[in-house]
Design goal:
The protein has 524 residues and is mostly beta strands. It is 10% helix and 35% strand. The chain has a 5-stranded antiparallel β-sheet, with no helix packed on it. Strands 2-36-37-38-3 form a 5-stranded mixed β-sheet, with no helix packed on it. The chain has a 4-stranded antiparallel β-sheet with strand order 10-11-12-13, with no helix packed on it.
Length: 524
């Protein structure tokens, strides 16, 4: 029997009063820390994204804002949560999802597209008229796993076409989408399950393409040359990012766009869109122009989006990194504001990567199109790989390290990979490095034949990288601080500028030799 208590039991009313006071105190504490406001903002954006389309998706998914924030050690997941696949460059809004393994253990080239000849055409740029072949930077395929089990590989190429291939055989899955110039960058498949494909071309056009007809059908396009105040060029290198009913994209005309798609289906069940540009902002400002003394300020990276803050990030070829709060726009409103600005000094074409804690990883290289001596002091002030804290706009550099040199085109062109607390980054001179994401300590540098333009792909404790002599190499990175061990090397026969896509034992990648390749273990 328990001993009698000398403390009188409180009355029920007193207990209720104390509980109420405790709730109020906790609420005030959360409000002062901003947790409640952040939660309300996320709930508002989530609700708005869910209502963004007049007609629901045939395979609805939670919006990106509903995905719980992963821990630092976890691997972020894909933007498409209701069906399997790799739908955009680096797989998600924060540009840090790389596909699904396993990687092959004894890889062979299972198919080549085309089986003979090359994907080539003639195109004109700053350096004159040349023949271009194969696939280039960034050039990562989309991989779509259909309900019937079919695997479709979607890839733009230098033959002025987007190709749609059977991932198991390399045969044409659907007819080509023909453009009038190079299909140079990466494209995007709709993450909500609408049969839509978003991609640009050097023929000036950004396209929204229906995939539920006999042939891919352009429903809408926007000509970059029609933009008032256009600066520099007219291509679309970056993979568009689809967030709910909105498409986010930056162009080589130096402008950023948010486009309301108005996705829906007609009476016959065919997908329809009525796109409208609801936000456009310059990718530069006068302060940047005064610093670099030229107008090579195109946006060539694939924009990144932080769903926890509603902020979109992008950079330009003059080194200006910007963050814009577009939460109200994605909720159907018209308000947006710049919340972050950082000038890193030079050409920033690599896509910005956002880690689970909201830090940014930015890669810079030296401009090759124009001489830019005015940027040299800033280039030497910060290394070519930077970790930035956008919550501290006046002191945003957490750390920086110099990878590569300061000659023209030196530094980072490939997009860094954030993987389980380590940053893996290729540098154009030829090689890659592993850097501790928290401290900036360089674990090692590994030399490869250059230039290395492709983005490294970490999967299941392994790292996949292509080099300039055409070797695709798989490294063991199970110990991120130790010098990596080569697991295998496969010669593909042409410079690998594109980023490989990995999907369930297969690797899909194009080369400058003129082909797209399907790679796996030998057929059993």
């Amino acid at each position: 029997m328990s001993p009698p208590s000398h403390r009188r039991q409180p009355r029920a009313g007193f207990r209720l009063l104390m509980a109420a006071l405790l709730v109020v105190a906790v609420g005030l504490l959360l409000w002062r820390t901003g947790a409640v406001r952040s939660l309300l903002d996320r709930m508002r954006r989530t609700a708005a994204l869910g209502q963004a389309s007049p007609s629901p998706s045939p395979s609805p998914k939670p919006s990106p804002t509903q995905r719980p924030t992963p821990s630092v050690a976890s691997t972020p997941g894909p933007i498409n949560t209701s069906f399997p696949g790799l739908t955009t460059f680096r797989g998600n809004a924060t540009r840090d999802y790389y596909g699904e393994g396993p990687l092959p253990a004894h890889p062979v080239i299972r198919w080549r597209y085309p089986s003979s000849g090359g994907l080539c055409s003639t195109s004109h740029d700053l350096f004159g008229t040349r023949v271009w072949c194969g696939t280039g930077w960034t050039g990562q395929p989309n991989v779509i796993q259909h309900k019937d089990g079919a695997i479709e590989v979607r890839e733009g190429a230098y033959d002025d076409r987007y190709h749609f291939l059977n991932g198991l055989t390399g045969k044409q899955y659907r007819p080509d989408l023909v453009t009038k110039d190079l299909a140079k960058g990466s494209a995007t498949s709709d993450a909500d399950g609408y049969p839509l494909y978003y991609g640009g071309s050097r023929d000036n056009l950004l396209r929204v393409v229906a995939m539920d007809r006999k042939t891919p059908t352009v429903l809408w396009s926007f000509d970059s040359r029609t933009q008032p105040g256009r600066v520099w060029n007219d291509d679309w290198d970056g993979a568009p990012l689809e967030i709910g009913d909105y498409l986010l994209e930056g162009g080589e005309n130096s402008w950023f766009y948010a486009i309301r798609l108005h996705r829906r289906y007609d009476g016959r069940g065919l997908v329809k869109v009525s796109p409208r540009i609801v936000m456009r902002v310059a990718g530069w400002d006068q302060q940047e122009l005064d610093a670099i003394h030229d107008k090579d300020i195109s946006i060539e990276d694939s924009v990144a989006f932080d769903p926890s803050s509603g902020t979109v990030y992008f950079a330009n070829s003059g080194g200006l990194v910007q963050g814009w709060d577009i939460g109200d726009v994605l909720a159907g409103g018209t308000k947006y504001r710049r919340v972050f600005r950082f000038w890193d000094g030079d050409d920033t074409d690599a896509s910005i990567v956002i880690d689970p804690e909201g830090y940014l990883y930015v890669g810079r290289k030296m401009e090759e199109n124009v001489a830019r001596p005015s940027s040299l002091p800033r280039d030497h002030q910060y290394g070519s790989l930077m970790k930035l804290d956008p919550r501290k706009p006046n002191h945003s550099v957490v750390w920086s390290v110099q990878l590569g040199g300061f000659e023209r085109d030196g530094g980072l062109l490939g997009t860094p990979a954030y993987y389980q607390g380590t940053i893996y980054a290729t540098y154009t001179e030829g090689g890659f490095a592993a850097v501790n994401a928290k401290t900036g300590k360089v674990h090692y540098r590994y030399t490869l034949p250059g230039p290395t333009w492709g983005s490294p792909v970490p999967i299941d404790g392994q790292l996949l990288i292509g080099d300039a002599v055409g070797d695709l190499i798989d490294f063991d990175i199970s110990n991120p601080s130790a010098q990596p061990r080569q697991l295998w090397t496969l010669h593909l026969g042409g410079t690998i500028e594109s980023t490989p896509a990995v999907w369930h034992g297969w690797i899909y990648v194009g080369t400058r030799a003129g082909a797209i390749l399907g790679i796996s273990d030998p057929k059993a």
